[in-house]
Amino acid sequence: MPTTDRHDLRHHGDAEVRDDGAALVDLAVNVRADTPPRWLREHIAASLTGLAAYPDGRAARAAVAARHGLPVERVLLTAGAAEAFVLLARALTARRPVVVHPQFTEPEAALRDAGHRVERVLLRAEDGFRLDPAAVPEDADLVVIGNPTNPTSVLHPAAALAALARPGRTLVVDEAFMDAVPGEREALAGRTDVPGLVVLRSLTKTWGLAGLRIGYVLAAPETVTELERAQPLWPVSTPALAAAEACVSPRALAEAAHAAYRIAVDRAHLVAGLREFAPDGLRVAEPAEGPFVLVRVERAAAVRRHLRDLGFAVRRGDTFPGLDEEWLRLAVRDRPTVNAFLQALDRAMVLASR
């Protein structure tokens, strides 16, 4: 499918709050609210005494490897998952790269910037944005898909994703939001039996570290070596390395697991409230399994504008291939925030209909 179209692949949720975010309740950015926690801030701050030395990622890399039960040769630390997409695009040779949409747009943007001609597989709303492995071209040698997928909040079965693996194919699964799924069910991180598998993880979403930039890649040692060659020297800062080590500690994993269950409860409350707007033409993409919810609503641009006037920022959906201007993405927040948002949504939809 041609990739020259109207979608702005470089538009992200932070654009919704960049100029006057302090005056808005943020449902546009998929970072867990009230993070980073105090203990993590203090741990990162303590690392500042070591800034005179060059970063040494060995301890953090070993900690990530142990967290997933892998040898360190299968781990690469990156400046956020976004850097990993750039490394993949630059380091790997791909004759027929395919990106499964709707999903996070940076993988395709990075591939395009590296000179690749990208094909798209568009999942359909009528099918619940579920993956049909047969829809991916058999000769695709690089396939990228998110799980759970941003922005649809679909959690694809691990078996369906593993079915995409082929000899000679690199299968990239973006699991940036997997730690927000209770039990991380359907995760492929830690699997070594899927040929060509590359799993990306982010520590910025659950821990509120978007400004620090820390993530990692899990892949076969030879793939890690190729990606590492494409990195600049010392790509991950000392504070980011300290954060990585802390965020995979037993204490942090227990806190993240608790947060995942709390997000599930808050998401259920949000979805239940959104269903009340069905008679007014609002539709929720279900089942939602991530820390965000995708909705389709008539006159969505006007609704989003009125919500902004009422103090709430939400993410437009029309920059995602496979979606149009009637889609909005909503980050899951706590019950009081959701209740206030639902009241504002009611008012915004009335104003948009006039």
UniProtKB/TrEMBL annotation:
<keyword id="KW-0663">Pyridoxal phosphate</keyword>
<keyword id="KW-0032">Aminotransferase</keyword>
<dbReference type="InterPro" id="IPR015424">
    <property type="entry name" value="PyrdxlP-dep_Trfase"/>
</dbReference>
<dbReference type="GO" id="GO:0030170">
    <property type="term" value="F:pyridoxal phosphate binding"/>
</dbReference>
<dbReference type="InterPro" id="IPR015422">
    <property type="entry name" value="PyrdxlP-dep_Trfase_small"/>
</dbReference>
<keyword id="KW-0456">Lyase</keyword>
<feature type="domain" description="Aminotransferase class I/classII large">
    <location>
        <begin position="25"/>
        <end position="345"/>
    </location>
</feature>
<dbReference type="Pfam" id="PF00155">
    <property type="entry name" value="Aminotran_1_2"/>
</dbReference>
<dbReference type="GO" id="GO:0016829">
    <property type="term" value="F:lyase activity"/>
</dbReference>
<dbReference type="InterPro" id="IPR015421">
    <property type="entry name" value="PyrdxlP-dep_Trfase_major"/>
</dbReference>
<dbReference type="GO" id="GO:0008483">
    <property type="term" value="F:transaminase activity"/>
</dbReference>
<keyword id="KW-0808">Transferase</keyword>
<comment type="similarity">
    <text>Belongs to the class-I pyridoxal-phosphate-dependent aminotransferase family.</text>
</comment>
<protein>
    <recommendedName>
        <fullName>Aminotransferase</fullName>
        <ecNumber>2.6.1.-</ecNumber>
    </recommendedName>
</protein>
<dbReference type="InterPro" id="IPR004839">
    <property type="entry name" value="Aminotransferase_I/II_large"/>
</dbReference>
<dbReference type="InterPro" id="IPR004838">
    <property type="entry name" value="NHTrfase_class1_PyrdxlP-BS"/>
</dbReference>
